[in-house]
Structure formats: C-alpha cells, structure tokens
Amino acid sequence: MWLDDLKTGDSWMGVWYALSHCGMCHALMRSGPCPVCGDLIDSSPRRVVVDGVERLITFATQGAIAWSTYVLLRLMQREWERPLAGQDWFGSVPPEKHPSQRLAIVILFWTLFEGLMDRFMDAGLADLPEAIRKDLLRRYGTIGSRLDRLYRLMWSTTFWDDLRDLGFGSEADHLKNVQERRNDFVHGNPEAIDDGLVLATVERLQTVQQGWIAVYNLRCTLKSKKIPVWKE
Ligand SMILES: [Zn+2]
Predict the structure, then answer these.
(1) CA 36 to ligand 1 center in whole angstroms
(2) 3-state DSSP call for residue 57?
(3) CB-CB neighbours of 123 under 10 Å
(4) Fewer CB atoms inside 10 A, N or C side of the chain?
(5) Is pLDDT at 48 greater than 70 in this prediction?
C-alpha cells in the first residue's frame, strides 16, 4: 500500500533513490543498460593505490536529486506526518468552506514540479545558442506557457501529450487539476484544495515524478551540452 510505504522516510525519496545520469547520453537511470542509449555502467569496484598499497574502492556516482527537490520532499513528508488540529479549527465556518488542513502539501508539490520543469527546460534547450535560449526562457516565463507554447516550438507537441503518450495520462490529468485548484486557492478559494486533492497528490507523488523522468529521457538527452538535474 502506498500509505504504508510512506511511513518510512526513504519512501518519500522514491524515484530518486540510486538515480543518476548516464555518462554517455545523460538519461536518468538506475543501473545499466541505459534506457536511451543502452550504455552499461561499469559498477565494479575500482582499484586505487594509496601510499603504495592497492585498495578496492566501491563504485560511486553523483546522484541526480537536487538539494531543493530533497528539501521539498522532506517538507511534504513532515506536513503529512504532522498531527491534525481538532474539528473546531475553522470555528463557525461551514464545513464546505474548509480547505484541507494539509493543503501545504499541494503547494509544496506544485513548487517541486515547477522546479523540475525549470531543470527540464535548462537541459532541453541546452544546445541552443545562449542568446536564443535566454530569450525563449524570458519570453515564456510562466510554467503554463513553457508546458504548452515553448514546448510546441521545441518539440511540436505539448508536455501533457508527451506524458500521455508515455503512459502517464492520469498523471497529466492530476497535474492539470493541481494547477487549476492551486490557482483557485491563490485567487480567493482556499477550499479548492481539499483532503481529496491532498490524498491524490501524495498517492501520485512517485508516478508523476516517474512520468517526468520518462519525458526528460525523451526530450533532454543526447545533447552535446549536458546540464545535470541536480545543478540549480
Ligand atoms: Zn545513455
């Protein structure tokens, strides 16, 4: 059960566990062969000589997770595990006007997703001439315009259609729902973020990120300029 899995801190890191970049094409992967170029990571221990003595050093590589991604996931976990206040928390306000007490999880999740998309665009546009890349990112500065119009300019489709084509249709629907309800929240309807949306967000936390990794591997690999997702 997803709920049980989340009881241990490590489960919140989920898809990021042991994830790193392929040394050849820069795809995100765990162990070989690379899902994009087929390259095999040689993870055998390395022999090094220290003070004239040969030693075996366990293979290690830089993980892919960015510090801000780690922090946001930990904050989501903390918010999920925090005890709830009593029923009278909102006083005499009618129940239908109550937002979820854990609505911060949805706000943190959207911040996480926006950060992932920033790094997606950094990597996906990396081979463009610097002035054009900067101009496009400035011109399409909002997350909505990047996922649609800038995405169409670059890849003749949208981020949403790429997600669907790779088997993450319900994750695309969920992200659009979160985007809409977060906007409602910001513009005077805090109750738009209810317990159902919080639950769906926690339930889909890992598959949304899996979908993001799949689209990243489709659009942001095999570039001559390689910008790692952990670089912010
Ligand atoms: Zn590769």
Answers:
(1) 5
(2) strand
(3) 22
(4) N
(5) yes
Comparing 44-48, 51-55, 164-168, 214-218, the range with the smallest average pLDDT is 44-48
- Contact, 68 vs 232, CB < 8 A? yes
How large is the average pLDDT for residues 97-120?
A: 95
Q: How many angstroms separate the alpha carbon of residue 27 from the centre of ligand 1? A: 5
Report if pTM > 0.85. Answer: yes
**pLDDT for residue 27 is more than 70:** yes
Q: Are 225 and 169 in contact (CB under 8 A)?
A: no
Q: State in Å: Cα 37 to ligand 1 middle.
A: 4
Distance 13 CA to ligand 1 centre (A): 23
Q: What is the pLDDT of residue 131?
A: 96
Question: Cα separation of 208 and 169, whole Å?
Answer: 10
Residues around the ion ligand 1 (C-beta < 5 A): 22, 24-25, 27, 34, 36-37, 39
Residue 3 confidence class, pLDDT cut points 50, 70, 90: very low
From residue 114, alpha-carbon distances to 101, 196, 209 in Å are 23, 22, 12
Pair of tokens at residue 44: 């055998």
